[in-house]
Structures are given as C-alpha cells and as structure tokens.
Amino acid sequence: MLADPRGWAHGGAHTFHQVADGSAGLVIRIATPATTDRLCAAYGLNTHGEVNCSGGSAVMVNLRRWQLGSPRFPGPLHEYRALIVNHEVGHWLGHGHETCPGPGRPAPAMMQQIKGLLGCVANAWPYDAAGRYLSGPTVP
Fold it and tell me: Does 131 reside within a domain?
C-alpha cells in the first residue's frame, strides 16, 4: 500500500521499507480492539474498540476493522484497508483531518470517511493517478 504510486511515497516525497532490526521510524501494527484501545490510550486517544490511531512511531490498525471493514465505507474491503493505512500514516506524517472538497469529488484520504462522505466519493488514496494531491478543506 505505501509503495502504491497513489500513496504517500508518490514522487519520492517519502520512502518506506520493511526492517527487522528495530530501527524503524514507523511501526504499523494490526491488533485486537482491546489492544488497540490500550495502545492508543497511551497517546490520549479513545478508540472505543472501533477505530484506528497513530501516535509516536506507531500506527495501530484495529483488527475488527481490518477484517470486516466499516459499514459506512461503501467501497471494497481492500480499498478500506488502504484507507486505514493511508489515513493513519498521513497523521504520522503530520497531516490533519480534511473534509469533502465538493459533491462528486474524491474524498481526501485524510477525511474521516467512516463518519460519512458529505457528497464526496469514497477514496483510499492521498494522490490520484495523475499525481495530484486529493485534498479538502482543513477540519479545525
């Protein structure tokens, strides 16, 4: 997912590679809802057994969401999985939440799409196929 041309590594802005020696600046974990809640709570985040989070060097993916998706995301499961990773890695990179830029337009990856699309079209990727960043107005 992170190496996809529509992902955060687009245009070489960021690089990601797997390491096994503990030197990673980013660790993505898929964990049970209870473990996700516990680890996210260390960063002051309450995930209610339902959502994912990022904090410090960690991105926590809720296993329930990884396996089942979200009833509010209308796309296929593999797209929802890409959205989970792209959204939380976006936070790790310093991006805040964005909202729908207009009806019929792709939802930004940094939009909380599980809360509704507000007229946008579901989208899992930070960039489109032409390399344009898919942004929306910043959420205060």
Answer: no
